[in-house]
């Protein structure tokens, strides 16, 4: 059991980072991580040694988050006046541009649909493979790719970034070396 606890403890920073990015609220994120860890300890017997603990924990966290959203929709959300954020400090900071860009990114992520935001955060922030993300979210890998592509496109639009340049030769039926090296067509045809 001590080995499981140690491995579990190593995953806490990643869980917190993902939960904070997902919920955009520190208190709610900490509650989500605590619920995830409590459930993981209670369901420890279901985890198979030798499998990816990180993916198992992210799956639990994902399900806990979905349950929280469903519960808040059903019951309604209430905010106490004491819970409202304080006004920001209005003094200029040396890294103000980077902080503004980060703020804009966070706001844009918040405007994405939840399923797109989850995939972008798991791939981009947690550096999970598409297969790992598919396993965590219990969707096919093709769905992960589709959500990631659509989410990235929406983020680019929200952030006012230019669309990626499309290749001139976008015929996907041609092998990659022919698309990349047009001269290869002439050598193969000759």
């Amino acid at each position: 059991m001590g080995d499981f606890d140690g491995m579990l403890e190593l995953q806490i920073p990643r869980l917190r980072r993902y939960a904070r990015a997902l919920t955009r609220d520190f208190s709610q994120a900490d509650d989500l991580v605590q619920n995830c860890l409590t459930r993981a300890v209670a369901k420890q017997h279901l985890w198979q040694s030798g499998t990816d603990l990180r993916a198992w924990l992210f799956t639990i966290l994902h399900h806990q988050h979905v349950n929280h959203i469903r519960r808040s929709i059903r019951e309604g959300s209430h905010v106490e006046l004491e819970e409202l954020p304080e006004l920001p400090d209005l003094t200029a900071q040396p890294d103000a541009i980077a902080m503004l860009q980060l703020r804009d990114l966070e706001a844009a992520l918040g405007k994405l649909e939840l399923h797109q935001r989850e995939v972008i955060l798991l791939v981009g922030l947690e550096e999970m493979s598409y297969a790992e993300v598919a396993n965590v979210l219990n969707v096919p890998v093709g769905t992960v790719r589709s959500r990631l592509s659509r989410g990235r496109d929406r983020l680019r639009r929200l952030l006012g970034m230019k669309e990626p340049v499309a290749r001139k030769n976008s015929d996907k039926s041609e092998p990659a070396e022919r698309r990349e090296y047009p001269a290869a067509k002439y050598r193969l045809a000759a």
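The chain has two domains: 1-76, 96-164. The domain at 96-164 is CATH 1.10.10.10 (Arc Repressor Mutant, subunit A).
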